[in-house]
Amino acid sequence: xxxxxxxxxxxxxxxxxxxxxxxxxxxxxxxxxxxxxxxxxxxxxxxxxxxxxxxxxxxxxxxxxxxxxxxxxxxxxxxxxxxxxxxxxxxxxxxxxxxxxxxxxxxxxxxxxxxxxxxxxxxxxxxxxxxxxxxxxxxxxxxxxxxxxxxxxxxxxxxxxxxxxxxxxxxxxxxxxxxxxxxxxxxxxxxxxxxxxxxxxxxxxxxxxxxxxxxxxxxxxxxxxxxxxxxxxxxxxxxxxxxxxxxxxxxxxxxxxxxxxxxxxxxxxxxxxxxxxxxxxxxxxxxxxxxxxxxxxxxxxxxxxxxxxxxxxxxxxxxxxxxxxxxxxxxxxxxxxxxxxxxxxxxxxxxxxxxxxxxxxxxxxxxxxxxxxxxxxxxxxxxxxxxxxxxxxxxxxxxxxxxxxxxxxxxxxxxxxxxxxxxxxxxxxxxxxxxxxxxxxxxxxxxxxxxxxxxxxxxxxxxxxxxxxxxxxxxxxxxxxxxxxxxxxxxxxxxxxxxxxxxxxxxxxxxxxxxxxxxxxxxxxxxxxxxxxxxxxxxxxxxxxxxxxxxxxxxxxxxxxxxxxxxxxxxxxxxxxxxxxxxxxxxxxxxxxxxxxxxxxxxxxxxxxxxxxxxxxxxxxxxxxxxxxxxxxxxxxxxxxxxxxxxxxxxxxxxxxxxxxxxxxxxxxxxxxxxxxxxxxxxxxxxxxxxxxxxxxxxxxxxxxxxxxxxxxxxxxxxxxxxxxxxxxxxxxxxxxxxxxxxxxx
Amino acid sequence: xxxxxxxxxxxxxxxxxxxxxxxxxxxxxxxxxxxxxxxxxxxxxxxxxxxxxxxxxxxxxxxxxxxxxxxxxxxxxxxxxxxxxxxxxxxxxxxxxxxxxxxxxxxxxxxxxxxxxxxxxxxxxxxxxxxxxxxxxxxxxxxxxxxxxxxxxxxxxxxxxxxxxxxxxxxxxxx
Lengths: 746, 175
Ligand code: FES
Ligand code: FES
Fold this sequence. Notes:
The structure holds two protein chains of two kinds. Chain A is an alpha+beta fold.
């Protein structure tokens, strides 16, 4: 890179510092306007009538009772969809509103716009719906037997005859997890008076919503402006359209702004979940603990529509082993079509489920061999120059697998088991005062997680950004979605360090103002949106220096030999300084028939250690501490990075001991925060983190994406710790009290 | 019916329906959208306000029952020019990520600080256990609480250590 991009340490709030969020004060004072806080003059409220069974034939819908109600302005069904009747990010297979066959509980049948939300809700209930219930397909093995699948990803690599003497084989299950972003789905559509509309909805990628919306609403893409959302969290659940098309239809029909807010129960059927999975594994090793053969069969429950499941199952398959060498690998991953709740993206994107099974297998293999579980992992750890055991891709960039394992093991263990005078709130069961402290057992468990960065399998991935100089400083423009993770801080830091100016603000543009930044997912925006901002800032700096004939730029203007030669205003007198860059990462391959190829841009790795106290009589667990050593490239903002680690660990802990979407006949039985349990601050473990910094050769300032790994291997590490404390097999997550007391059911 | 109450020190009146909650009336009739609506079932604390000195889930309070009451919402604690110490601590510790839980947590912690300034770290955890946060994992929130209460939580990392992480890099950073 040229010298215009060298970090200027004197710049305030640049990379490497714990810059505070610019939206922090609005958020803590209650003035930050979330999606659900938006209003528009003359606004109507929308509501949705949904199916209450998972599989049915829709016999008849009569909207007249709803239309007859005072204050109701529109009641729309599938026949009212102006354009294409199906939506979906990759395959458009999800009907905008129910067609003849209803395939999931919660499927939207009709939408209503009314003067106020209560009228809208009552009108939606007044719609007469006649259904003939059909038998739902809910069993994964049955779905596979019937060929109901979206994708089968097959990996075959190495010598088919390779066999190991020491064999560990079992079946694992992991439950469906709800992303449970605290802000429910909310949105607003506003007609523009020229036949088009402005739309604010729950999204992680406005430019992927745009073509779907334009097609369904029969509008030209230039007639729809999808605005960046101010979300109350996402974690993957806003990757697919929920209410957006409905809002657009209602706004176009009524000619008035329409707002919709899902309540928590509706939210449970209004967004995608982390796939529940059934996984069969067979590991074979030689007497020295070298992995010789791994066979895995992964069944993922996608629900009835494809959405992102084809990409999710690819990740599950390619990361089925973890970061280990192996002579022979045979993995079959299936994304299965059922009448269960819709699954899609969630933090880790398919890599989490096999991580639970495969890391458990590693522990059991270590036990069978009589070696330390970390030693077994170190003996098999891959690193730069090695090949990924599944896809065969050579690891080109830093990937400190052994380092994260050694680093997490080196973190001092927390204080021993609590004594008799401990505050009961530090015990499993908390103030419920269950077993006496003397009856507790402590366990320590480890797990390692490997994941890809960015999109894979030949996806043409890019991000656009614009950096503009103004007389008051610089403005970064991006369509990337700030979901709470702190992109707004990171891209400003990158721009500051690159420009040499501390006065940088971030503007989140709508789809009509700037090109796509790609999705806020796949741990990609620090490197992708950040990479585009870096290059745009480099271009602006170079142009400013050239225009004024200077050798340095700061908040005052351009300098030459220590003298200010042009203020920002002087510079801009000769025309704007404004650079737009579209950044692409290196291309990736499409897999061959054996799942082989350079399918991924880059990789990241982390190791977790969990320490738990277990009450073995009542099956209660308290997670005392979770330690992590993580490959982060370079730390751009230590405060935010630690926040991602702690938050990610809490979600992984939740999936280990409490979070499970309970489904019967395709119907969610715990669609509320009363019954779907999330970790509270009484469940929050102490978190110790070691950041292993080996700079990425292509990420801005050496940074890698990092926000998914803290969740991934936290789940198997916590379960491993409970296993170590209890001796129970625990082949299912989350672990339930009865699994601890009686052992896992068959 | 018409309900009269004092909100953040100002007398307010609102036309309300019998089934409407205090949360709804604050947000939709009085234009105070700080309090949030993440569950509407009393499980998440995002709607927390102080009602006649008590911390309540405003989604569970009928607006009609707030007749004559004094209500403090997150907007009443401080603003951008003079934030409440709890609000400043939340920003400084990175305790707001998406920020959806934040108004409720800020109100709950400010109420705790006023009523139980001697709360121990375990008291703080118990007091805030009714406020769900999906983003932060609570560490930053507990560090903010420790700062405003003037004592550390051994389970939340030392006060004044913004990140609590140890980095193995040499600190040199280039693009
Ligand atoms: S919205 Fe009131 S407790 Fe959740
Ligand atoms: S910061 Fe997002 S829920 Fe707490």
